[in-house]
Structure formats: structure tokens, C-alpha cells
Design a protein that fits this description.
single chain, 10% helix, 2 helices, 5-stranded mixed beta sheet, Immunoglobulin-like
Length: 139
């Protein structure tokens, strides 16, 4: 294909992206009122490099077949894509704990939402100061 032909091709629209942090939270909550208890977030208050920030999340749960955590979502307030990670859990997962490393664009609030099999959502937030940011738009 010649260059002129390639430049004349129509642009294909990308799938619509959520409007941002608030839209992602609203989509997960789906009209439910979150409980401000039951989640422990372990992560540094200060991160020298936003390319790799450790985070561990523990949700208080009986972890029974009838009452267990079904999902844990991590949202970042200022990253280009707010939903950093989502984890799906089942009744046989045991403790509702996850640990990972995330990339952060800048100093911001990290929000964790945990959904339960009973339809409840738990919510916790943590501020993290990032010295050298990562994952900026266009890169």
C-alpha cells in the first residue's frame, strides 16, 4: 500500500473511554451506597518512582459461601485510565487479600472498592505522594 493511499483511509473510532475517575466509581457502585469500613490498604505514603508502587489490600470478610468478597477494584484519581486493576474472587478464595504493583502518573488518591456476594460495596481511599510520575498521556 502506498503512503498516499494509507493516509486516505478513514479513521476508525476507538471504543468510548469512561469520563474519568468519578465515572468509574459510579459504574462500580451502580447506585449502591458504599460502606466506609472493612478495607485495609497497605502502600507507601511517599513513592520516589511512580513506575512501580507496591499496594496490598485486605478486606474483612467471613469468606463463606453465602458471604464473601466477589471483586476488589483499584482506581487512581489522576492516571489516564482510572481503573488500575480489578480482581475477581470466589467463595473458595480464602482470605480476601490481593497484592500487586501499580503505575501512578502523579501524586493522587487511590480508591479501593470491594464488592460482596450480598451486594454490598466497601470503600477506602489512600493518598500517595509520587516524586517521579509514570503513565502519562501519549506514552
Amino acid at each position: 500500500m502506498r503512503r498516499r493511499t494509507l493516509l486516505a483511509l478513514p479513521l476508525i473510532p476507538l471504543p468510548a473511554r469512561a469520563e474519568g475517575f468519578a465515572a468509574e466509581e459510579a459504574a462500580i457502585l451502580a447506585g449502591r451506597m458504599p460502606l466506609a469500613a472493612g478495607i485495609a490498604i497497605e502502600m507507601p505514603v511517599l513513592s520516589e518512582n511512580g513506575n512501580s508502587v507496591d499496594i496490598a489490600i485486605r478486606v474483612e470478610s467471613p469468606s463463606t459461601r453465602e458471604d464473601h468478597v466477589t471483586a476488589i477494584h483499584i482506581l487512581s484519581e489522576k492516571n489516564p485510565v482510572p481503573r488500575v486493576a480489578s480482581f475477581t474472587l470466589g467463595p473458595r478464595s480464602g482470605r480476601a487479600e490481593v497484592a500487586t504493583r501499580i503505575r501512578l502518573a502523579t501524586t493522587q488518591t487511590i480508591l479501593v472498592l470491594a464488592e460482596t456476594s450480598r451486594g454490598q460495596v466497601h470503600r477506602a481511599a489512600r493518598e500517595v505522594i509520587v516524586i517521579l510520575g509514570a503513565c502519562v498521556d501519549g506514552g
